Amino acid sequence: MSSEVEAAHGGHGRAEAHHPALAHHFESLAAQKEAAGLGMWVFIAQEVMFFGGLFAAYTIYRALYPEAFARASHHLDVTLGAVNTGVLICSSLTMAMAVHAAALGKRRQIVGWLLLTVLLGSAFLGIKVVEYTDKFHHHLVPGPHFDGAALGLAGQDAQRAQIYYSLYFGMTGLHALHMIIGIPILLALAWLARRGRYGAAYYTPVELTGLYWHFVDIIWIFLFPLLYLIA
User: What does the domain layout of the chain look like in residue ranges?
Assistant: First the structure.
């Protein structure tokens, strides 16, 4: 019995050793997945510190200039922000379903869920374009043409409102950039999945991209109340 078990494990090991996705410097797919996972978590950790600095800057300036920040935030469209929040939550669900389908080796479902995630991510970016266009139209972009009168502010209060919009565009723009980077990655994964690259034995790229996508969604969960709801 023990020899049969050893033979079975040996056969499994030989199958992994010849798997096309296994890099030559790893002994097994499990070891490769562990190393890739560690790399992704390190990347997410430094992203948390990066966004954490922006959140800290926002918190400090909000405490210093509460009235100007509150007045500036009133010009944001809470409805569009709430819709985008729902869109991103749904995209996290579809991304999770793509990972689940990959774990089960269901190729067509992987492609479908990934493409649906791309669609939802694109919808989010489209709504952000609408919001940004409104800010340009009302001259609420920080700079020489900033119109504090649109907010009922003048003098120092108008300058303080520019700080708010600098942080608004910086934080939401950086968040949108992460999504712009993520969407082509999802499309590449969908193309590779369609070609049979991923299955129950190997789906690490899908799983790690899912971690990245969930992180981006969580950042927005904090941005929405911070920028849109706290007045």
Answer: 33-229
